[in-house]
Amino acid sequence: MDTEDAVRRIASHAHNTPADLIQGPLAVISANLDHIAHFGTEGRWFDTLDLSRDDGPSNTQWLTLVDGAPLAAEAERLTGRSWPRLAGSDLIGPLLDQAEADGTTVGFLGGSALIQRLLSRTLTRTRPDLVIAGMWSPDRAVLADPAASRDLAQSIREAQVQLLVVGLGKPRQELWIAEYGQLTGANVLLAFGAVVDFLAGGIRRAPRWASSRGLEWAWRLALEPRRLARRYLIDDPPSYFRMRRDSFVPEPTPHATVAAVPVSPLIGGTPDGSFAPAGEAVDVVVQVVTYNSAEQLEGLMASLRREARLLRLRVVVADNDSTDGTLAVLAAYPDVIALPTGGNLGYATGINAAMRVPGDSAAVLVLNPDLTVGPGAISSLYARMVRSGAGIVAPLLLDDDGEIYPSLRREPSIARALGDALLGSRVRGRPGRTAEIDAEPESYRHPHRIDWATGAALLVRSDLASQLGDWDDRFFLYSEEVDYCRRARASGAAVWFEPAARMTHSRGGSGASPELNALLAVNRIRYIRKHHPPLYAAVFRAVVVLSEMVRVTLPAHRGVLAIVIDEQGWDLLPGPTGSRQDARSADFPRGSVIIPAHNEEAVLARTLAPLAPLAAAGRIELIVSCNGCTDGTVGIARSFEGVRVTEVPVASKTAALNSADEVATVWPRIYLDADIEVTPAALGLVLDRLTTGEAVAARPTFRYDSSGASFPVRAYFRARQRIPAFSKALWGAGVYGVSETGHARFGTFPAVTADDLLIDNLFGACEKAVVNGPPVRVRTPRTASTLLAVLTRVHRGNSELAHQDLHDRGKRADDAVSSPGRTLFALVTSVRGPVSALDTAAYVAFTTVARAQVLVRSAARPARGGRQGAWERDESSRRR
User: What are the pLDDT digits (tens) for 507-524?
Assistant: First the structure.
């Protein structure tokens, strides 16, 4: 438009009668670089203006005028024609002239009381026939209060304003119009910023020579440097470069609106606020993860009862092995589904367990136990999800004293980590690029898109939850919600904040301690390593080290710096642990555990001890397949109640596996080396994952036990732990499992040395899983000579599989195992100092010698798997 077209359209809409305004009021925006900073695709308020009404979708029409000189120049570059600048300060004069001629009633919202008095005198003198319906000068407290803002809008409606000039400053004026403008009854609302000050003479307009050359910003900066320096010098330059990078001329399309989420009609609540049982369709499934939360549950359950009168809810509580009577408290709520996880397995694992309770729902609400849900909060979250098409919606969290808890976060980055390290996490007023926590009060007053929010309360659309799958349980505690929200955004789903949904977070289970702060710092690094290249992650880790150096004297951070620097201590941080209770067998998942054993009298008892009670209770089928045993292995196996023993005359591991498979009757099946100790909790998690069909092959996490080993051996395994491929494959832990479907992929075990590598090769990444839980203890060799012998066997097994014909079974071994070049690259890029460099050298040395020995040993004794070659077993870790 040019100025004449814009004035004609705006004035015409303002003079309409209410009956003519079928499409709602017209909101007019002057767009400049500041507008892009706030409302562009990377702005805080992107995609908010059509979606902010609490009582239903807004039908406000938005007219965006090209104001700033950079926007006009970019439009000319893209279209090849001149674009006039339509600044609100230029349009307001002609618009008031037309309103005076038409008899249109005008109101002014914004500006100080003094400015409004000056404006009233000016307009009385210069436009005596202009009908001024009213002037309103609300303070920020009124604008921040929804009830007060509605009263203000009602006051404007009662004054029968047709043209309302809103000068609250960007972005507050646009957000207020979006949320309350339709309630004012005004035909047109002009979001014209400082135009009230210009009209009153409070601010001098830039001279024509400056505005005609695009230098109006410099003039205003010179007049008000303190107020406008951040806008013009910090926020606007990135907006300019984003505009140049991302602008394009779109194909003509109908007016686009955000598609609402297709949902079935709500089922609705029950008069008594009862919760639905498993299997029944509900509106929302509420999932709570507890750990010693007995004192916090009463308030949560009472608030959920109230919400259940509005929406049909199912409440599932996954308890992480509480010892304070949490399960006893839950027993008082018979319609709550209490689900013991079998150990303190972490927040993500608890959520994943709750996700598997059957029954359809429109959404899933993840809650901390120390929350109290405000009246109508779940309904408000659900309404925002439907109106905005969001995949995840976060509520407003309040502390016990009613103060807003800053729960909104930005995506972690080096710049934000550095800003938080040097300036603290809650210093207001600095650019969002330098702060991860969003501490700006304005952010907590209006609905908008966010990167992520603390995981204390998140409503997730059910179809998105199914698409994303499990929360990443490798984090145990902290960063799992960051990762989940990032995966949601990567899938195309939006994450929104809804301030109308209020919940009180007592944070009773969120206390700070050096141990938890260390885990928080380490998990931030782990998150960045998961999603960024090694160099970026290395710089981020250095910034985290700097942050801990700055805070090293604080009591809650003592010792954190040393842990962040020494990665070998990361495994000692809080992590999954097995159940301390003995009643786990009542709901233990069914399955078979097969243990091949050849002369294992020194270690078999310690392997069977934690599993035999489950076998005796009939929860698992436990089979020890003795092959070629000449010691007391058979007698030890038979001494345990519930253990079934088979015997194979030859010393062959694969023959033992096949023999046990023939007598086993239960699926899925776990294959466990006789010297590996697995806890019932870890076993149950793997069986559960295989039973649900989410994976056809899986293993638990494991941890190397190098106590008593020589320095070169410890160095080798420290380096090995830094290689990503070793943490994702099924081999290396001495235990893996397959479902019946997975077992059908190979039928019987062929005569190979590396059976675990064979299984890993047969399945793609989406078919197998490493299940986080209490880690399996893998004792490493104690001496360099024993380690070298074991590595020789391993590389011989890899070589066997590389020459196997696996065309009909899956991919070839050399496609699944990292090549020496990739492994070396991963090791070199993971070096953090002289110790890790020495570890890398030890790894390379052992690996090179072992590979060389495989090449020269062309004639060797028969292997246990039936191949030619010696069977090198680690006896050093098998000593009693």
Answer: 755 556 788 888 899 999
